Amino acid sequence: AALGVFRPDTTPDHWAAARNNLGNTRRAQAAAVRSPGDSAALLNTLHRPSSIRVQPPGETTALDGPADMRRSLPINLQRLCEIREAVSIPIQFGGGLRTMEDIRLALELGADRVILGTVAISNPNLVAEAVQRWGHERIMVGIDARDGMVAIHGWQEISETDAVELGHTMHAMGVRRVVYTDISRDGLLTGVNVEATARLGDITGLKVIASGGVAGIDDIHRLKAHEHFNIDGVIVGQAIYTNNLDLSEAIKIGRKPLARRSAGLVPYRMTARGPEFLMIFNLFFDQWQFPRGGVQRDEADSVTARREFQEETGLAVVTMHDDCRIELNYTATIRHYDIERTIIYFPAEVATAEVRLENENHCEAVWRSFDAAWELLTETAPEQLPALEAAMQYLQNKTPLSGN
After folding, report:
1. Global confidence as pTM
2. Which residues, 6+ apart, have CB-to-CB distance to 353 below 8 Å?
C-alpha cells in the first residue's frame, strides 16, 4: 500500500514530478515484497500463548505476542494497525498480498476487506480459495489497467490480459466486487474514466469501485449518473489533499436516491393519411421508444432533446414545438437499481431521409402511424404512451387531421 502526502499548495506544475515519484514508489514496493513465510511467522507471534513473553536484546520489558509482532511488521502493516486504532470506519487494504497467510494477517490486524492485485493473474486459484474462506464481502480484486490492459507488479508491467476478461474470470472465481484504476490518470486530477468503469460493471456484473483521476465534484456527479452500471463507489485521494473536492458534499451526492433526467423528441412526418411517428428499438431496455438522452448539468431540456435526436438518427429537425412540453415521471428498475425517471418530450417535425443509428444500443428504426405506434408502445413501453397521445392531441389541435 502506498502512503503519500501532497501539500495543499501543490500546483499543476508539480504533477509530472508527482507522477515520477509515484512510479518510483511503485518500483520500491515491487522490490520490497516480503519473502514467503514472513506472514506465517508474524501470525505465530501474534497468537503466541499469553504466558510466553519475550524480552528483546537491549529492552527492559518483556513483550507479549501482539507487542512483539508489531516490532517486526513492515511499514504498510504498521500503518494499517495505526489507522485501525485511530478510526472505526471500514478499511480496505491492498498491496503485496500473495499468500493466504498474507491475507489472514491483514484481516486480523484490522482490515475489513483486502484487495488482491497481481496474484489475481499469477495465481487465480488463491483468489477462489480466499473467497471461499472469508467470503466475497471481504475479498476484492484490484484491476489496474492502461488502455484496457491489466498492469501488474506495482504497475511496472502491462500484461496481455484485458481488464474485462480478467473481470469475467474473477466473477467465475466468486469475486463480486473490484477496484478499477485507470493508471494513466491516477494522481493527476485529469478526470475519472467513467466509461471504462461503467463498461466493466455492465459487461461482467461485478460491482466496481472507481479509482484514478478524480478531479472534483463533477466526477462524483458523473459516476452517480452511471451507478446503475454497477458502480459501487469511488476512491478519492489527490482531489482531497489539494482541496479540489468537498468530501462531505461528495458523500451526500453518493447517498442520494438514483434519479435520471432525460429529454427527447416525439418525431413525426406528415403524410396524406396523417402523421407518422419515428420509433427506435433500444436493445438495453428491450423496448420501442422515442429518441432521447440524458440532460447534462446546466443544459436546457430543449437543447438536449434536439442534440440527442440529431446524434442518434442523423436527421434534421424541421420544426420543434417548444410550446408542447410533455413530462413523464415513473420508476424504472435496472439491475435491481430503482431509478426515478423524468423524461421531457417535445413533438417535432423532422426531415424525411435515411435514419443513421449511431447508438450501439439501437438496432432498428421504423415510421408508424399513431395506431401502430400505440401498439408498439403498449407491448414494450406503456409508460411512454402519454407522450404519444399528448403529441397527437397537440397536432390535432394545431392542424385538423384527416385521420390517425
Report:
1. 0.74
2. 314, 315, 316
